[in-house]
Amino acid sequence: MTGALLRLDGVQAGYGDLTAVRDVSLEVRTGEIVALIGSNGAGKTTTLRAICGLLPLRGGRVELDGASIAGRPPSAIVAGGIAHVPEGRQLFPTMTVLENLELGARTPESRRRRAESLDRVIALFPRLGERRGQIAGTLSGGEQQMTAIGRALMARPRLLMLDEPSLGLAPVMVTSIFENLRTINRDGVTILLVEQNVLRALRLSHRAYVLENGTITLSGLSAELLTNEAIKRAYLGR
Fold first, then answer.
1. Would you say the C-alpha torsion 21, 38, 227, 173 has a positive or negative sign?
2. Of 108, 109, 129, nearest to 118 (Cα)?
3. Are 83 and 155 in contact (CB under 8 A)?
4. Regarding beta strands 33-37 and 207-212, do their DSSP bridges make them parallel or antiparallel, or are they unpaired?
5. pLDDT tens profile 2-15
């Protein structure tokens, strides 16, 4: 693992009169899986939306490869190498699996390599190959999550951000998705994971940050946080 691919320094963001995250600072180094954990309403989704340009910053700085990306449109941030899998998947339900996947390849480089990327996605998620002509709204929850991750991978990102990928899935499917994430990381994609399943998130990730009430309250190696008494009490029911 090398230098920081993504760095947040004192980030503030919110909605209307509400400032949902305050003074959030973190970094994701090239090659890592970093988890951002916390309870509902802690500001995890807001943080991801601020990174990818869906929410304007109210303060602080977001850097990709040391250069500020604040104020750039989301399309430019995707072109810079960040892909976002939103909470709830947000597929186009009346389009086919293949059409949803192809929508992920919107930059000139990803369009040029679309066939290659599609082959990689199908190799990772063979079920999507079987379902490529099926309407996305008729898929199971797990298949929809595979499609959402596959769509993001079609952009050929350096950094993949996922918001609650285990939400609403059966345990066996959660296990499968997390193994897929491990494979994606081993193939060279850096990951920033927002996840309420704290135990799985810490077991998957290299490092983690704890977000509470819009502020980072704890960070460290995931293996060490697994044994932290405060984490055990608050998130692991121990």
1. negative
2. 129
3. yes
4. parallel
5. 579 999 999 999 99
